[in-house]
């Protein structure tokens, strides 16, 4: 997914025959497209999805589109008296089998530049499913965060758009630390203005992919961030593909570390590269159902991606993968559990009240303008 838009849809599960082919279709349409007052997809982790309510910014929900169980997350505490915090993200903790043990909802309360705009502080509110309460913390960064575009994996968020090149910022929201960790990119300071780079995940790891267009081929290099305290990188692939033009890496397959997807700005097409076989396939548009296991909305790709190819490290897509096991959503103490139908009904009612308030306000000012009040 790209923000609220779905770009690439994979299916092909072999065990859950009663589920629809497309995992995205499990998320009701109003969760994926933004209309004032409707529920809005915000983030996903461990197969769970974080939904916000467009009519009530204090409300959000965490649930499973498969089991259709949703936890209504209570509003932030008095430490957010003005209600200025914004729903930001979701992290989960999994056991060895991939079952979700707990989750945390993250709201951004503040962002402040420090030390003459060289560093910054990020204030967050955290809701834990284990305790059912909100806590707050301020996370200190040695650098400015250019924007909040990120990926998250295993409880850690990674930010790539920073005030200095060649690094990422990482923070584990299950840790007690109040500091961002600086992760140096594996190719820094090897800088070339023609590099196209992205940060994504695959096979349980953070992946860093880079392309370089040459005269007769596109060279693709992929590194894996090791799950250790040193945040070291391992070069997995360096492959040349006989395709020319401006190809940028978009994402990798969630499970297959030998499958990477490139977007052609010139030809407006998505290419699937098999790194083991060193071959590639041009993938079709979502409107052409050729009984494939992947569909692409080219119009959305063109609209959202062509303008972004000059970012230093692009974070294109946010993966939503259905959970490996049909398990109940962790229920926090004193939390309210509702199903999808109830959630949509609540959102519709909230939207109705908001629209009525808007109409009444517009009527009032129209009467004032015409001198009737």
From TrEMBL:
UniProt cross-references to InterPro entries, sorted A to Z: At3g26010-like, Beta-prop_At3g26010-like
Domain F-box protein At3g26010-like beta-propeller: 1-331
Domain of life: Eukaryota
Stretches of the chain forming a coiled coil according to its record: none
Organism for this UniProt entry: Brassica cretica (Mustard)
Name of this chain's protein: F-box protein At3g26010-like beta-propeller domain-containing protein
Any Pfam family the entry gives: b-prop_At3g26010-like
